[in-house]
Design goal:
CATH architecture of the largest domain: Alpha-Beta Barrel
Distance between the termini: 28 Å
Helix content: 10-25%
Order of helices and strands: HEEHEEEEEEEHHHHHEE
Strand content: 15-25%
Number of domains: 2
Number of strands: 11
CATH topology of the largest domain: N-terminal domain of MutM-like DNA repair proteins
Strand order of the largest sheet: 2-9-5-4-3
Structural class: alpha+beta
CATH superfamily of the largest domain: MutM-like, N-terminal
Radius of gyration: 20 Å
């Protein structure tokens, strides 16, 4: 699933354009086609197709794993889920097999939401908070500095891996960057959050920010998703490196299942002590 760095990369590409795909800021929607009805979570398909034409894309933002296309009257929210992608292409190009929704612009281009697994969703709403209101803070939020992150972490007695992936706790982290941040912080994924010291929690926040920024700088990870643009997979420390040597100590990377998610860690660098389990 695309995580914060991949979604941020797509937001930037949509704003600025890339290679033969122009940006879409300032473009006016002439029409909308819904090719897979379940992609549109809100409103109903007919309203979705009726309300979009005539609206202009004024800003493109990101909140957690959501893309926000702020239009002249409403906001279009997009969650890519497992396999979603956004493609800017000429209107005269044949529709690809997995296109689920298209926005046609007046100047001969369209934005296509391509989603092989059909899990992605769109919302066209007047108030984005109706969808985003329960999200936790962004990892780069300055309110987390000092004791802010420590107070949040220590208020739960949960294993670190599922807590960090909980979008109500912190918005944007998924399987890849959680594993990477925990390894960098030398914390076992099963460590109980309330056992962390202030020093450990601040280090963890720094590591989360570092791996996310590295991911953004390298345009995300292209490994277990159809996402095309990134090369952070070449710099992964533990994720999907089961049996390979840890880049810090050389011990074989191990895999376990935490909260039904495959989890990668170094048993030498990330020791689970009796005091933290």
């Amino acid at each position: 699933m695309p995580e914060l760095p991949e979604v941020e990369t797509i937001a930037r590409f949509l704003r600025q354009g890339i290679a033969d795909q122009p940006g879409i800021l300032g473009r006016k929607v002439a029409g909308a086609q819904v090719l897979w009805a379940r992609t549109v979570a809100e409103p109903d398909v007919s309203s979705f197709q009726e309300r979009l034409p005539g609206q202009t894309i004024q800003h493109i933002d990101r909140r957690g794993k959501f893309l926000l296309l702020r239009l002249s009257q409403e906001t279009l929210l997009i969650h890519l889920r497992m396999s979603g992608d956004l493609i800017v292409e000429p209107l005269n190009q044949a529709l690809a097999p997995h296109h689920r929704v298209t926005l046609e612009f007046e100047d001969g281009w369209r934005l296509a939401f391509n989603d092989a697994r059909k899990f992605g969703r769109m919302w066209l709403v007047a108030d984005p908070q109706s969808v985003l209101g329960n999200l936790g803070p962004e990892p780069f939020d300055r309110s987390l500095e000092g004791v802010g992150f420590y107070n949040r972490v220590s208020s739960f007695r949960r294993q670190l891996k599922p807590l960090l992936m909980d979008q109500h706790f912190l918005a944007g982290l998924g399987n890849i960057y959680t594993d990477e941040a925990l390894h960098l912080a030398r914390l076992h994924p099963l460590t109980i959050s309330s056992s962390l010291t202030l020093q450990q929690s601040n280090l963890l926040l720094d590591c989360i920010r570092q791996v996310l920024q590295d991911g953004i700088d390298r345009h995300g990870t292209s490994i277990d998703w159809v996402y095309r643009g990134g090369d952070y997979q070449r710099y992964l420390r533990v994720y999907q490196r089961t049996g390979e040597p840890c880049l810090v100590c050389g011990a074989p990377v191990e895999r376990l299942v935490v909260g039904q998610r495959g989890t990668h860690y170094c048993p030498s660098c990330q020791v689970l002590s009796a005091l933290t389990s």
